[in-house]
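[Discussion] Sanity-checking designs against the backbone

I'm trying to build intuition for which residues belong where. Below is a structure token string of 397 positions. I'd appreciate it if someone posts a full sequence so I can compare it with mine line by line.
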């Protein structure tokens, strides 16, 4: 007879090394703008994505929340973007990886600076500020911290502007003076436009404004529909139909010697509303034991232990979550390359003592600490293909 399981039997937790690390240095979001700028002979930039052919004028249209897998699953709603799938990543038909965590603040900083999270220093939705010991929301920049100290590197737009390349960002006027824009997307000219149509038209005008131009434009409403209603909702599909028309509108106005790249900051997964799929940190005494702060988001957690408890917290989290989450210590995650090939000293203390990344369709919510976030249908952050893979669709005149 086979041995009967006992209360002491625990399945092996997921190995840290089994997590699919983003393709930093060859095919991640952080590699996109340096590659485009290098094609315009901007100093201190490198063509890290070798498949992309240079263009004198390049526009990046970033659609918040448009993952590669979600786009491929909705050809009827996005006929134009679907027609470009074969063009992705220089005609290879392959996606980029967002970077870890696959979340907006981190990804926008990776895009704008051309650096992975371990260098630019925005390694999560919320992270601990070592100077104050408090959680800092890097999307809303609350509580406030000096942006230039938090992220001191120049953006690729700044490097391009210094090299004589016309640089412009076209986005909602509400983003013009935010700290996140300052640290991630500053440099050249910011042009605020309320409607998507105006952004596309203005982006095309900015591309044609100089012999060499680097232009960025952005659309956020698809992500909002996904969070609120899910990527399997009519609201999300309606937004996808709209953004498909916007991308076509921009592509049809491209000036000579230009290239349009349509990409995204992350994908998204819908999580079922039940206790099996939504584990509540605030209601679980085992997960709370020894934890001083809970950062990150439901699928990509930074866990900050009380002094001396980091080892016990790591052991407990692996026992409780290790079949569904990759659970690593800070140093294990760094060694595995989750945040890139290097970690700046100022960034080290922002990372959790324990870092948990979801593999399965589960969410670690905090119903009391994060009531709004805990009610979101669509979520993202981890290293699964649905969250990590983003398109790099290309159109030329």
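Best answer:
Here's mine. Compare freely.
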């Amino acid at each position: 007879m086979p041995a009967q399981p006992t209360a002491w039997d625990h399945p092996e937790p997921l190995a840290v090394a089994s997590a699919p690390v983003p393709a930093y240095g060859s095919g991640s979001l952080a590699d996109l703008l340096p590659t485009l700028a290098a094609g315009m002979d901007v100093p201190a930039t490198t063509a890290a994505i070798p498949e992309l052919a240079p263009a004198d004028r390049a526009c990046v249209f970033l659609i918040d929340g448009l993952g590669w897998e979600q786009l491929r699953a909705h050809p009827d709603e996005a006929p134009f973007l679907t027609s470009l799938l074969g063009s992705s990543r220089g005609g290879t038909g392959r996606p980029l990886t967002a970077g870890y965590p696959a979340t907006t603040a981190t990804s926008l900083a990776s895009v704008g600076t051309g650096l992975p999270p371990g260098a630019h220093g925005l390694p999560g939705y919320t992270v601990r500020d070592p100077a104050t010991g408090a959680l800092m929301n890097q999307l809303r920049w609350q509580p406030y911290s000096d942006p230039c100290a938090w992220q001191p590197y120049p953006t690729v737009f700044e490097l391009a502007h210094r090299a004589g390349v016309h640089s412009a960002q076209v986005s909602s006027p509400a983003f013009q003076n935010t700290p996140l824009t300052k640290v991630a997307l500053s440099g050249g000219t910011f042009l605020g436009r309320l409607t998507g149509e105006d952004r596309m038209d203005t982006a095309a005008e900015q591309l044609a404004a100089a012999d060499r131009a680097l232009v960025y434009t952005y659309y956020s409403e698809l992500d909002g529909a996904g969070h609120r209603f899910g990527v399997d909702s009519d609201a999300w599909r309606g937004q996808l139909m709209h953004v498909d028309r916007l991308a076509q509108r921009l592509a049809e106005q491209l000036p000579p010697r230009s290239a349009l790249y349509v990409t995204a900051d992350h994908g998204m997964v819908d999580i079922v509303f039940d206790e099996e799929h939504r584990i509540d940190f605030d209601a679980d005494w085992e997960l709370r034991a020894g934890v001083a702060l809970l950062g990150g988001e439901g699928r990509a957690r930074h866990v900050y232990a009380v002094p001396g408890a980091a080892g016990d917290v790591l052991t407990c989290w692996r026992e409780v979550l290790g079949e569904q989450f990759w659970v690593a210590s800070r140093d294990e995650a760094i060694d595995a390359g989750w945040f890139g090939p290097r970690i700046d000293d100022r960034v080290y203390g922002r990372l959790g003592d324990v870092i948990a990344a979801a593999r399965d369709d589960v969410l670690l919510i905090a119903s009391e600490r994060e009531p709004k976030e805990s009610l979101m249908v669509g979520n993202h952050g981890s290293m699964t293909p649905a969250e990590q893979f983003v398109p790099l669709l290309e159109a030329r005149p």
